[in-house]
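Hey, can you fold this one?
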Amino acid sequence: MNPTPTVQEDTPARTALPQNTLHAAIVDPQMDSMRLLSETAMKFPDALSFSSGAPYDGTHDIANLSVHIDRYVKHLRDQGVPEQRITRMLFQYGPVNGFIQGEVAKMLQHDEDIDVPAEAIMITHGFQEATLVALRGLFASPDDVLLSVSPAYVGIRGAARMLDIPVKGIVEGPNGLEPEAVAAAARAVRAEGKRPVALYLVPDFSNPSGTVVPLEARQRLLDVAAEEGLKILEDNPYGLFARDGEKMPTLKSLDTRGDVLYLGSFAKSAFPGARLGYLVADQIVESEDGGRRTLAQELSKAKAMFSVGSSSLSQAAIGGILVENDYDLRSATRELAAVYQERLAVTLDALAAHFPPERYAEHQVRWNVPRGGFFLTVEVGFAADLAAMERSARDFGVSWAPMSMFYIDGGGDRELRLGFSNLAPDAIREGIARLVRFIESEARS
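Sure. Predicted structure:
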């Protein structure tokens, strides 16, 4: 792929900054994968893109921007909040941990059976800030190690890399992360003289693989966390989009010992552009003088240094959405869930039509079959790297994401991820047809 544009030669001479003087995370080429995917999409705008996990945008309406905020303002007035205070909330700097924690707490109790007080919630700039804050608080020593499902969303590895936190990947099975593999990984880290501190996973429709951890394994994961002294970072952006009747309890709702920190986002369920998420950390932190605060309150010191506070207008918009829907996003997103279920089914049907499973020995292509979420993975018979993805986008008009960018310690070299969430059914069918032609071309070369 083309390198990042450089300064023209006729620019007046200035002292160059050697790249190797920058932080290792900035120099690391693995940290550049998402930018390269975005640049490929811009470079080949006519290519149908399976490379992103953008949510469906067919329900967005500019008129609703003011409606959501107005609804939240009305909610505050109905509660008797003085007008001067409402004005200050919307126009001034706000509390570091946000001001819609109460609304989020009601949503969590209704949708996920997670019962925590408002002060256990931090409103963040999406999942990524929630992760940075949680990692910064939990990891205190260079010998502390993060355990992570592998393959995993690139944001967790990137956040750890930025904070110089070593990550040990645990390759998932067909049903997601396996508890005994977690226990073995924790013991292996200790055998190296280091300390496993926390475990990251997406139990529901994981990005990138779409796997779901079964209930029995969830309960066992909590037992392993207690036995091994681990905190669990549970990331749940897709849990609302299960089929009707197939909702799984979150690890946080099953947690009776306070081992789970819950990471949420409104990007997939409500308003991507608001860039708002939350961190649930209800563990109690006791200071030397006997003071007691929730971990979320204690971690506000980190958030204050990262972003000072989250956008007041974004919070008001999300607050308005929650109030309008009686804190029931699960019901409010049923139509959206049906859209994703349809697109998943269309993708699976199109793959099966072109690559009949009973003829696998002939075409050497197979895929997993998630029951929800935004993604599935496809195994192919060639190196599915960024160079191959560019050929696919340039010559065949279809892009995707190499699975190798999601593995922690290597792997996925002959796999690709298909994100179908923001493609209409006809575009999916055409995109799969183009992908088939690319795969067949690679097989001949």
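The domain at 66-329 is CATH 3.40.640.10 (Aspartate Aminotransferase; domain 2). Let me know if you want another pass with a different chain boundary.
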